[in-house]
Design goal:
Helix 3 packs across helix 13, helix 4 packs across helix 12 and helix 5 packs across helix 7. This protein is an all-alpha fold and about 300 residues long.
Length: about 300
C-alpha cells in the first residue's frame, strides 16, 4: 500500500485514488528493502543484467552500422551478381521468397496441429504428451542437424540437388515445433468461459474454434510467427546444405538452376573468403534493416487484427 493510501485508511477513508493503484513510492520501496536486504541485492542484480543485455544489443547494432554503412554502394544492389559488384539484391529477394514460402507451408500446419492438441484431443491423452515432448525435443535440435537431414533426404535421396524447395521444407521443419508450442500456449491461455459461452449460444465446435478462440489467441500466435521469421531470416547452416549458394535468382523450385543463397548465406560466403569483408558488413546492415522491417510489418498486422476484433 502506498503512503497516500495509508493516510486515507488512517483517516477512515478506505477509498484509494485511482492514480495510486498499483503504484509504489520510492520511500515505501526503500523501507521494504531495509527489512529485506536480499531483495535489494536481487533487484540490483536484475537491473545489472538488464543493463548488460541492452548494452550488448546496442553495442552490436552500433558496431554493425559503423562498419557497414560507409561501405554501402549502388553496385551492391545490382540486379545480377558478379564477382566485381558482389550484389546482394538477388540474396535479398531469395530471403523474402524463402521466408514467405516457409511461412505458407509451416504456419497452417502448426496452427492446426495446436488446435487439435488443445481443442479436439482428450485432456490427459498419452498421445498428446508424446507429441508435446517430441516438439520440445525438435525445437532444441541444432539447425545443422536439420540441414544434414535435408541434404540427405531432399538433395541426395530425392535428387532435388541444391534447390530453394529443399531449403524451404527444411526451414519449415525447423520452425514447426516453435509455431506449435507458441500456438498451443496461446490457445490454453483463452479462458474456458469463452468456450462455454459460445456453446451456450448454440455455436458448434468448429465455429467456436475459428470465430471465438483463434481470434482471441492471435497475439500469442503472431508472437510465434515473429520468432519464426527471425529464425528463418537468420539461418545459414541448414541452407548451405540444402538450398546451396547460388548468387542469382532461382529459375525453378528443384533441379538445375534452383540453388538460391539467402542474405545470411551471402554474407557468410563474403566473410569466409576474406576478400569482401567490407561488403559483408554492408550486407549485415541490410539484413538488420530487413529483419526490423519484417518484424514491424508483423507487429502492424497483429495490431490490425486485434483492433478489428475489438
Amino acid at each position: 500500500m502506498t503512503d497516500a493510501a495509508e493516510k486515507n485508511t488512517m483517516s477512515g477513508n478506505t477509498t484509494v485514488p485511482e492514480n495510486y493503484i498499483n503504484r509504489v513510492t520510492i520511500g515505501a520501496r526503500l523501507r521494504q528493502y531495509a527489512r529485506s536486504p536480499l531483495s535489494l541485492l536481487l533487484m540490483i542484480l536484475v537491473m545489472l543484467a538488464a543493463i548488460f543485455a541492452v548494452g550488448m544489443l546496442v553495442f552490436i547494432i552500433i558496431y554493425i552500422l559503423v562498419n557497414g554503412v560507409p561501405h554501402l554502394s549502388a553496385e551492391q544492389f545490382s540486379w545480377k551478381y558478379t564477382t566485381e559488384n558482389v550484389s546482394m539484391l538477388p540474396a535479398i529477394i531469395n530471403t523474402l521468397l524463402m521466408t514467405a514460402m516457409t511461412l505458407i507451408l509451416a504456419v497452417p500446419i502448426g496452427i492446426f496441429a495446436a488446435v487439435y492438441l488443445v481443442e479436439y484431443a482428450k485432456r490427459g491423452n498419452k498421445l498428446v504428451k508424446v507429441i508435446r515432448v517430441t516438439t520440445e525435443t525438435l525445437s532444441g535440435i541444432p539447425s545443422i542437424v536439420f540441414g544434414l537431414f535435408g541434404f540427405l533426404m531432399f538433395n541426395i535421396s530425392l535428387k532435388w540437388q541444391f534447390s530453394i524447395l529443399a531449403g524451404v521444407i527444411t526451414l519449415a521443419m525447423m520452425i514447426l515445433p516453435l509455431i506449435i508450442r507458441t500456438t498451443e500456449e496461446a490457445l490454453l491461455a483463452v479462458p474456458d468461459s469463452y468456450r462455454e459461452g459460445s456453446f451456450g449460444l448454440g455455436a458448434g465446435k468448429m465455429r467456436t474454434v475459428f470465430r471465438v478462440i483463434l481470434p482471441t489467441a492471435v497475439p500469442g500466435i503472431m508472437s510465434g510467427v515473429i520468432l519464426s521469421i527471425g529464425r528463418i531470416v537468420g539461418e545459414s547452416a541448414a541452407l548451405i546444405f540444402t538450398s546451396g549458394s547460388g548468387h542469382n535468382l532461382p529459375g525453378a523450385l528443384i533441379g538445375s538452376g534452383s540453388s538460391a543463397a539467402t542474405l545470411t548465406v551471402h554474407m557468410y560466403i563474403l566473410s569466409n573468403e576474406g576478400l569482401h569483408t567490407d561488403q559483408a558488413f554492408a550486407s549485415a546492415v541490410v539484413l538488420l534493416a530487413l529483419t526490423f522491417i519484417i518484424n514491424l510489418i508483423s507487429d502492424l498486422i497483429e495490431r490490425h487484427i486485434s483492433k478489428k476484433k475489438g
